[in-house]
Write a structure and sequence with these properties.
Distance between the termini: 52 Å
Radius of gyration: 22 Å
Helix content: 40-55%
Largest sheet: 7 strands, mixed
Length: 490
């Protein structure tokens, strides 16, 4: 791996193919994505990343690209549109006429909008297991997660691997799927960094677990990440991934984001879903009874899970999501790390805490931030970095929303490259580098200072990116009204 330079570059929430993503090229009508064109923001981003990587380690191995969920927009865009914009992305990451920016092995952690990539990968993984099983052996239950520290990198997102090889003519490049946590540890420094998309920090994505606990109080949801995913995977895949890929129905899913913020719209949505489900799967005579009952159940469940974290617009994390973050860190994440490092969680000598110096990287909220968390089970404070998002969710600017990239150095130190934030007025903020503050000292870490020096050395290049991003964000705010009106009319 080398002893210098940049080891991991983490991006999330690109939502490639979405109308409101600044990384999707948009047509003159402000509504239609043109997947054959590369957006100016994307082109300038990769130009800056190439110069940054070269500056941080000209002789070091190329860093690994970590795609931390919601890279492809499967909920609000068609497959072909999302995948074609992904082609533009990979054209820049692995250009045919230049040296690739990243290592040949891309690591992909699906989120909620591209959860279907995990479902297809795990089915292939299980099929391979069945194929290699001896005739007399019994089948085990299909698994719902991959190992965090030593994932099987042969489990690929085959369609993405096919795309990058088709576009770049580089047969050695592949896209491996890891879900839902990807971690690295350094025993020499006792550091650990874990990537997770972030959807499990929000109640909506644990909706089935909530229903189980509320409707069947004696059935307590399990503590492991396997339990969380096993309870909720079908709901996540249906609503946030597969539904958007379902023809005319999927084309209207964009309006659901607005509906999830309003009680009257939630009631309308629950009514439509209950009538559709009972009409399709129940006897006709029972519909007058079963549809209202299902509607009340859905309203109860959705009411417990909403509003979405992105509706909280005054600070990077709402108190509810702060609690969800702590619950995830002290619950399934700690459980998985201890299980993989120690191999046992039963008996009187089982480990109950970790002394690792953890950095936790997530996205999902579209609100970049750097902070310190003190969840139960961790003997040291946890550094938390959020990578924000590349979509414009609101008509009016929300100044806590924006995009960042997390850069991890050779000793697993991590910093946030703050690329843009939405602004109500005034000039765009320049690209900057930030890290969580562990104490009263104002001195940045050595890794933070190195990245700051690299950004300063390319001040003109990053200024050009900032101007393009600011212009694109402003334009998408204006276009969002057209997008919503178009979806509602449809």
């Amino acid at each position: 791996m080398g002893t210098d330079g940049l080891r991991y570059v983490c991006l999330s929430d690109l939502h490639l193919g979405a109308q409101n993503s600044v990384l999707s090229a948009i047509g003159d009508d402000d509504v239609t994505v043109d997947p054959t064109r590369t957006s100016e923001v994307m082109a300038l981003l990769f130009a800056g990343l190439r110069r940054l990587v070269d500056h941080l380690g000209p002789d070091a191995p190329r860093p690994t690209l970590v795609l931390n969920g919601d890279i492809l927009e499967f909920a609000l865009a068609s497959d072909d549109a999302a995948l074609m914009v992904f082609e533009r992305f990979m054209d820049l990451a692995f250009p045919m006429d230049d040296t690739p920016i990243f290592d040949d092995r891309v690591l992909y952690i699906p989120g909620n909008h591209d959860h279907h990539l995990w479902e297809t990968a795990r089915e292939r993984q299980y099929a391979r297991y069945v194929r290699d099983l001896a005739d007399e052996e019994s089948l085990k239950a299909p698994w719902h997660v991959t190992p965090m520290l030593k994932p099987d990198r042969s489990i690929e997102a085959e369609v993405l691997t096919a795309i990058v090889r088709r576009r770049t003519h580089r047969e050695q490049v592949s896209v491996a799927v890891v879900y839902p946590n990807l971690g690295f540890v350094d025993d020499e420094t006792n550091q650990a960094v874990v990537f997770h998309h972030g959807h499990f920090t929000e109640p909506l994505y644990r909706l089935m677990s909530t229903l189980q606990r509320d409707l069947f109080p004696s059935q307590t949801p399990g503590p492991a990440i396997w339990d969380w995913e096993a309870d909720n995977f079908a709901w996540i895949d249906f609503f946030w991934s597969a539904l958007g890929r379902s023809g005319v129905v999927g084309s209207d899913v964009g309006a659901l984001y607005v509906m999830l913020q309003r009680p009257d719209a939630l009631d309308w949505l629950a009514g439509n879903l209950s009538r559709a489900v009972t009409g399709r799967y129940g006897p006709t005579w029972a519909s007058p009874i079963s549809a209202p009952l299902l509607r009340r159940t859905l309203m109860f469940a959705l009411g417990r899970a909403t509003p979405l974290e992105r509706a909280h617009v005054t600070e990077p994390l709402s108190p509810r999501s702060e609690q969800g973050l702590d619950d995830y860190l002290s619950g399934p994440l700690l459980h998985q790390l201890l299980a993989e490092e120690h191999g046992h969680l039963d008996g009187p000598d089982r480990p109950v805490s970790s002394d690792r110096a953890l950095t936790f990287v997530f996205g999902h909220t579209h609100k970049p931030c750097e902070r310190i968390a003190t969840p139960d089970g961790w003997k040291q404070p946890v550094k938390v970095l959020n990578t924000g998002g590349w979509v414009v969710d609101t008509v009016e600017p929300i100044e806590v929303q924006g995009a960042a990239i997390v850069l991890v150095g050779h000793d697993l130190d991590a910093v946030s490259l703050r690329l843009f934030t939405e602004r109500a007025d005034g000039p765009a903020a320049p690209v900057s580098v930030a890290e969580p503050d562990l104490g009263p000292s104002d001195a940045p870490s050595a890794w933070c200072q190195r990245v700051r020096d690299a950004v300063s050395a390319d001040e003109a290049g990053w200024a050009a990116f900032s101007r393009a991003a600011d212009e694109a964000v402003t334009h998408r705010h204006g276009a969002l009204t057209k997008i919503i009106d178009h979806a509602m009319r449809a």
